[in-house]
Amino acid sequence: MKPEVREARKPRPRGWRWLLVTVVLVGTVFLVRGFAVDVFLVVEQSMWPGFRGEEDRILVQRLAQKPRRWQIWLYESDEGSGLPLVKRVVGMEDEFIDLRAGDLYVGKSPDQMQRLIRPPDVVDDLLVPLFPTPAGEGGSDRFNVLSGSVRGDSTALTLSGNVVAHLKSSLSELVRENIYDDHLGNEGGYQAGSQVVPDIRVDLRIDAIQGGGQLQIWHDLRGHGERRAVCIGAGGLSLRVGDFDGSRITPLAWDGAFPVALRMETIDGRFRVVRLGGDMRPQRVLLEQRRETGVHGGYSRVRLVLDAGVVRLSSVRVARDVYWAWPLRRAGAGAYHVGDGYFFLGDNAPVSDDSRKSGPVPRGRLVGRAWRIVWPSHRSRALP
In sequence order, which residues have a C-beta less than 8 Å from that of residue 332 and are 6 or more positions away? Predict the structure, then answer.
């Protein structure tokens, strides 16, 4: 396996800003090494988008307690390269684990497997932003997903008349309405995915709807035979399940005031509609239903539909969930017994060499827990 992190070297001097960075980083290393903490530079993309290769420096706690599920740890490669790998802990000692339609199942025996419900901070860490923009190949009424050099955190849209805005989930000019596990390769370039991802999140703020129109935010799963839409505007706020003919409608609480921020997501077998606050953080769950997406067999597609009038949207953010899958040589083999050690997966599953290939990692090869991103400063944060 290629090493994925190395001990961080101080940056080359480039004026007073880099001098300050050097002083802070070097000072941090000498200060925290007394507490068995080191700074490492991430050099690969196997933990993208949380970590970005050749950019992120992370604090690693060498004397951490034994691993807990969902934590990010460094461990020595079984090939003895001398430089560690960085992955996420998903399987504990003596557990059985399985990967089904992108989700993780665990149990004490193969006939007692349950899908894991991840903590909210872990879900946030694993979601892959799709970076929509109104200026796509298909025109101003269609989403597109652009490369890292031009993407932003969110976008604003104004739709008018009778329009449909599709989501194209790619990281280059490749046009797709479907949501696949498109990703970055270890060299940083776009790679088209092969797995249809059914679990998504859509956040948006509706600033105004004029002209008596209704905005519908659809998530279609072909193969599963299910379509769901959050509808807002004339007639209030509601959830529509199924096609327009014979669909089931569930009213949702809303006072009719704009702006209003909403989240529609299908995560870990749960479909939720959530009211967001002014900071776009969850404020109130309006509806939660079980939604089994593991039997889908076609596409996963997000669309915005406006039947009339004008709608102004801001803070539009679309993301897909991580999609973990077994290698082809093991697909369909059933639950895997971890035995001694810990089972690690990379968040950027298609390019990650992890326990799916090399097996569990014994405790003696653990280096330490990734504790915090310390550079670049605008993305500095504690890790789950």
Answer: 326
